Amino acid sequence: MAKHPSIRDQLERDAWRNHALFAQRRARIAARHGSSSLRWQDRALLILAIVLVLLLIVRVETARAEPGTAPFWGIEAAEPGGSRSVALNTDFVVQVTGLAARVQVTQRFRNDGAAWKEAVYRFPLPQGAAVDRLRIETGGRVIEGEIREREEARRAYQQARSAGQLASLVEQQRPNQFETRLANIGPGEEVQVQIGFLATVDYRDGSFSLQLPLTFTPRWESADAGADNSRAGTAWPDEAPHPILSPGGDIDDHYLTVEVMLHSVTELVSIESRFHDIDIQPEPGGYRILLTDPDARSDRVFDLGWTPEFGTAPAASLTTWDGGDAVYALLMLAPPLAEAIAPQPREVVFVIDTSGSMEGTSIRQAKSALRQGLDHLDPQDRFNLVRFDSDAELLFPAAVQPSPYYLAQATDFINDLHASGGTDMAPALDLAMGLARHAGLLRQIVFITDGSVGNEQELLLGIGEKLDDSRLFTVAIGSAPNAWFMRKAAEVGRGSYHHIGKQDEVEERMTALWARIENPAVQNLQVDWGMEAEYYPEIIPDLYAGDPLWLYARLPFEPQEVTLTGELDSRYWQAVSRVSPLAGGEGLATLWARRRVEALEDSRIFGVDAAEVRRQVLDLALEFGLLTPYTSLVAVDRTPTRPPAEDLDSEGVPSLLPAGSALSAGFSATATGWPLQLTLALLSLFVATGMLLYLPPSRAQLAGGARRPGAAFSP
Amino acid sequence: MRNARHWLSAAVPVTAAFLSLYFAVSAAWIPLKAELAQWLMERSWRESLAGGMPRPPWPWADTSVAAELGVPAHDVSLLVLRGNSGRNLAFGPVLVDSTTGSQDIVINGHRDTHFRFLRELQIGDRLRLSDRDGDRWYAVGELEVVDSRRYEMIVDGTAERLSLVTCYPFDSPVAGGPLRYVVTAYPLREGASTKRR
Asked: Model-level pTM?
């Protein structure tokens, strides 16, 4: 047993030192003996030793040069857990008007150290937030920021940073990850960075809600987990840095204040916050909501929900804003209540991917998802199964009833599935969409795959062309499916997207899928604005129970009413929306632009050139002052404040770990290095034997003082 | 001068031989200790499974066996120790203290002794974790290389998973590198995949 706990460490440390000593000694001997005394055996040994040492060095180097360790542009963030001198506290001020929320986040950076600092802080914002404002405030001075092209903004920031001017840069790094950089915070100084954005309020089952994420929840993000659109060539740099997380505990910053002004013309029956205690003060024209806890920290999502009086919740709402040369509109339409209509019999076609990439956990999850799916079928439904890898195979020539006989056959078929072969999705989709149809049955295709394909564009176009009256529901399997493609496929297929990441999610997610499939939806929706309109999303999805439809439009002039028509239960369905008294603000233009950016980004998949997309997004972003993957917000003070003699330190400000999660002991040293010692042992053995074998004769010669003529190497 | 040369030419091979012996012994000691400790712990583990008071694996040991980790596909069976210290790591994989009692379990092990088999693990391989409460089965879901300078492992009270952590790369000759190889496995629900058979 080890006599002392540190003996191993000692050995590891000494290994290298001894090794160097040894090599030195060997070199000295070689020098003393002179080149002529080195026989070829010695030379061979020496070369061998050198080669071995070089090999070791090379291996150490390759071990160090692993990917993911490269610092991101220019400045390295502080080590997580290291001592910090920049403190950060955050204030949110939210104005909710109708379906839009205007949010101002104030990040108050305070430099408690003696050196000049640059703070780097990464933070999340709500899904689909349209960031359009930046302003720095310090000691009564206000510096307004502006939108610039990303590289240009970086240059402006870098220049100001080196010149000693107070400057701030806000960039988007991932769909929901943003970064603030604030340069030249003087010792003892407090600087406020104010970021403004617009978000839409969620509306579901008669209640509104607003979520403000305040920290990140990943354990760590693998390179593609953060971005949904990981394939399909996105604008997000692959090496987008990860958030820095820090446990709360004894730190004295990351305090949080939230103030929400809820403008409401109707009475509210309830206002609730899921994770924070709140104070509610009635005010003329609405309610003011504040956090009760003065010690609240940014360690959990702020989730506010409110419900208007029964019957006053809108079934449809149309708000507009006249922007001069165009009118911007937001149309929200709630679906008809599910209970009102009898469920419609369906023909469900399950399509399962059995290609090689599904091997292991994925195929098992896919199989249990399939079995779950079969369980949900009603007696009046019909079903069929398609399996595909390099080729596609149909179980029944036509859809069958879920009778025990057919179900048993299907179960056998499922049990026999093995994952191997290539992924040729198109024939399987064609097969499923092209099946002969039963009259009066709604065809729903449930497509279970990890989506690892290279021809997304072709597939999506194919789905769009051949879908007809079928609906495509995608079930993504595994921890890193091609989510972007699967989501888009469901969008084009007018169904919905579901993700099963783990075995124990199978049941929950398949039940959620079935809740969607089972209830009738308004289909083939058409919108009539009464004029030429540019609206998003361009493909209007089916209207499912519980999920309202949102449309953002740009119109040439003010609409009076908007008519939506569709089919519900094979019958004509119509809804008319009139402009509501609550006029929307200019935010509607920003929100519309934000949706257009998204649509433009998506258009790459349909073959639009990436450079063209970039150009269009850039134009739009600069016109509407939007933060996008290609544009950043930058603010620069005119006069330098940092004396040229003073250095600037960069410091990463961490986000707090989500409440409820504890930090583990971190990573231990998990290598002993004994193979190295073994190598060294062998090396020493080589040398020892080599010298014992070959040195005695040369020693004799040296002792006798004689040199064999001719033994010397030729010149 | 000649004397010095004479002396040197004799001393060098002798020194080299001693060095060789020294390295060989210290190198052999590590895997030997790793094996021996597992063997000694085996007895104490059996006793504690049988319901007796867990006896320390060896008289002066101040750690005890927390669980047994089995990987049938790779013919691996290891006893996992309590107490995440460098000394315990020499005897066997250790359970990270802060994950004791949680559903989100992290086990550390040396990449060149007990956890050498991690490099062989494939997505979908099954892992068994046995303790006094019985067996739990997991399936490997992710294999990742993580830079320990940049990331911290977060123990998520709501997640149910088993993570095996070791140093990376497996072949690096020097110990103490920043990279870690992390195998994350998720629990298998018995019956979920066999229900309809």
From this structure: 0.59
